[in-house]
Amino acid sequence: MYLSNEEEEYNLSLSRFESMLKTNKVLFFDSEEFENIILHYLDSGKMNLAKKALKLALEQHPNSTGLKLVQVELLIFQDKLEMADRLLNELHAIEPTNEEIYIQRANIYSKKGQHEKAIEFLKVALDLTEDFSDVFSLLGMEYLFIDEIELAKQSFIHCLENDEEDQSALYNVVYCFDFLAENDKAVEFLNEFIENDPYSDIAWHQLGRQYFTLKRYEESVRAFEYATLIDEHFLGAYLEKGKALEKLKRFQEAIDNYMITLDLDTPSSYVLMRIGNCHEELGNSEMALHYYKKTVHEDPLLDKGWISLTDFFIKEEKYEKALHHLQKAINIDDQNEKYWIRYAALNKSLLHFEEAEIGYQKAIELGSDQLSDWTSWSDVLYLLGEYETAISKLLEASEKHPDDPEIAYRLAVIYFSQNEIEKGTFHLTIGLQNDYDKKSIIEELFPSQWENPLLQNIIEKYPTF
């Protein structure tokens, strides 16, 4: 790979320094070389080597402002903020127009959580610097800390105007658009960005994501295709393209893209699950089951993998197997109301009414407010002979779904079952008034009560009853 002269010199300096440490010979480095060496170790998390390089650097260049600013950065990194502040005061007296002093003061205030103060110092640095992109990037982050998303967005845009290769700034701009739900504006911004830099794979990828959010799936696929043409190893773009193709029901193409991601990296349980889903949509049951099993083998703690197997076996009407796999998902996430609804429905199909009742109760406790869940719960309670509890749950549901015929017909059935004719008649009449045709609920779910002569008499005489 080709290296610029600057990169070669940087690597040579680093190699000479590490050789010096091994041989204990003292070699001379200029102050800029030391700055790069120290920052390299700091960025790599090698704190001891950074400290050692700084000590040697200050011995060789005791009056270097640049090295002392690196020392400030090291102190801030170690949370020695008071020491860093004192050193900055000394440097400010020497070089009051050095923008790095204001940047480091901003870093100190940011560490203290005083982000408005940090912003003030960064604005001063902006007036002094020639490297606008870095300062705008720091400003953007400070605005994010105080939830000034619009100002953060503008700062990151200014950063890109000064350095369009700053990928983190591009990601941050799009994050701001997303946060503000300005997806159309994001599309406009990214298209303008691509006009200036048509070979930015990141911009094409982000454009594809925006189109996907806007449900413009054809355009999304095209954007991801450009990203992968620019970088044929762009795993994320292949993955997102697969998801967009699924939305377009182009399942075989989606599989092809997902398979590329498996070649580029270690198998992802999420990708294996998506491949399984695509095969299921194509009617390839054996392949679908194969990939669902690979999903949970790859990541046994992925609850959605177990749910995929659950739903697969439900479609196959293999309810015992479905329940077995569902239990594994619930063991991983027992706070998911949708899992408990499946648990209840499966147990109801298997005539395990007590377990089904537990499932509906748990789902509703977790926040499910679907009328069908309340009515199904009451049906199970009715089958268990717990009439009073069933009535109680239906009345509770009626507070959120007043005069709903599904509730009214069920209440009528239960009251007639208890020979409370007046109450049964009252609720049956409400059901007939609100939706006459839905009386079929009684015939389908409660055939013994459908044959009740009193009930049939009321239906026949409605609406004169």
Strands, helices and their partners?
Blueprint: H1 5-23, H2 31-43, H3 47-60, H4 65-77, H5 81-94, H6 99-111, H7 115-128, H8 132-145, H9 149-162, H10 167-179, H11 183-196, H12 201-213, H13 217-230, H14 235-247, H15 251-264, H16 269-281, H17 285-298, H18 303-315, H19 319-332, H20 337-349, H21 353-365, H22 371-383, H23 387-400, H24 405-417, H25 421-434, H26 440-445, H27 447-450, H28 453-461
Helix pairs in contact: 1-2, 2-3, 2-4, 3-4, 4-5, 4-6, 5-6, 6-7, 7-8, 8-9, 9-10, 10-12, 11-12, 12-13, 12-14, 13-14, 14-15, 15-16, 16-17, 16-18, 17-18, 18-19, 19-20, 20-21, 21-22, 22-23, 22-24, 23-24, 24-25, 25-28
Separation, N- and C-terminal Cα atoms: 91 Å
Helix content: over 70%
Give the structural class: mainly alpha
pLDDT averaged over residues: 91
Rg over C-alpha atoms, rounded to the nearest angstrom:
33 Å
Proportion of residues in β-strands = under 5%
